[in-house]
Amino acid sequence: MKVLYFAWVRTKTGIAEESLALPGGVETVGQFLDWLKTRGPGFAEALKQPGFVRVAVNQEFAQADTRLHDRDEVALFPPVTGG
Q: What's domain 2-77's architecture?
């Protein structure tokens, strides 16, 4: 699975992108975010407020119950505002 980190999510995690195997027992976006929080203080800080980080799976907005697969591309980014 390819994971992309954008904007301040990238800054806090220190990673722009990485390839990961889907962790055992992780089947949904929500479970994946919970697992990411355990990877260190930068991840925990970036993901501390539920719902504040947006997630896209294969370039489509995803919800916490969206199922994940090993070949997915997952992107994490802050909410976007416009004016």
A: Roll (3.10)
